[in-house]
Design brief:
Blueprint: E1 11-21, E2 26-32, E3 42-43, E4 45-48, H1 55-67, E5 73-80, E6 91-101, H2 102-105, E7 116-119, H3 130-145, E8 159-160, H4 161-172, H5 178-187, E9 191-198, E10 206-211, H6 213-216
Parallel strand pairs: 1-6
Antiparallel strand pairs: 1-2, 1-4, 2-3, 2-7, 5-6, 8-10, 9-10
Length: 235
């Protein structure tokens, strides 16, 4: 028997939600869709699963096609299976989200797809159910950020506390008191102060820090104290 009888064949798509941070704003990478339906409208980067691929390989292929990157943080999010999500054919989409430092990779972003970074609060209307995918990815990022050092995937190796506060405010969509954030963050013992300063944004400058990765596993719950309304986060 070469195929299962009386079964409907379905297409499987992979869509990637690519988050990036530029030191000021948390952003998402979108492309102009290159085919009908919805040609020319804003979309997540995606493609169909090929015969010789598993899901993770397909997601890595799509991400590299768009950004030229490999080995970045990439996590499966959810399978979207509404029978009417694609008006052309029945297509199940498996969504992934990726985290990159915009400054480290901005020159590698492919212009073939008319890719553009958008602030999370300035995202245009997306095709199909891609808005739903983005909202779910944002919720997942909020949850993961409270439990794991996931946000540091968006940061350069060394960073300032104001930059880190900008990132947390972007992820959680709220303003955080500057003094409380700095005090709670330093009290975790998870940051290592560097001797040099970032001086582009002020004459006084702000000291750079690095994450103490060796100490993180033992004190990972310390970050819960600096997350706004962390008790409300959903898994």
């Amino acid at each position: 028997m070469s195929k299962y009888s009386k079964q409907t064949r379905l297409l499987t798509a992979i869509d990637c939600i690519v988050f990036g941070f530029d030191g000021v704003d948390l952003k998402i990478l979108l492309v102009k869709r290159g085919m009908e339906p919805e040609k020319g409208k804003w979309s997540l980067i995606g493609s169909f699963l090929q015969q010789d691929e598993d899901l993770s390989k397909a997601a890595s292929r799509i991400l590299k096609l768009l950004t030229g990157l490999s080995g970045v943080y990439l996590e499966q999010l959810h399978a979207f299976s509404n029978p009417k999500r694609d008006p052309i054919e029945r297509t199940i989409s498996v969504a992934y989200f990726a985290l990159i430092d915009i400054h480290a990779y901005e020159k590698q972003i492919s212009h073939e797809f008319h890719a553009e970074w958008f602030r999370l609060d300035k995202i245009p209307k997306l095709i199909f159910d891609h808005d739903e995918m983005v909202e779910m990815a944002k919720e997942k990022l909020q949850y993961k950020a409270a439990l794991h050092p996931i946000l540091f995937e968006l940061m350069p190796e060394k960073f300032t506390i104001p930059q880190l506060q900008n990132l947390y405010e972007g992820v959680y969509g709220t303003e955080i008191d500057k003094r409380n954030f700095s005090r709670k963050l330093l009290s975790t013992g998870l940051l290592v102060k560097q001797p040099d300063k970032e001086r582009e944004n002020s004459k006084k400058g702000a000291y750079y820090y690095k994450l103490n990765k060796n100490n993180y596993k033992a004190k990972f719950q310390a970050f819960l104290n600096i997350i706004p309304n962390s008790h409300k986060l959903k898994g």
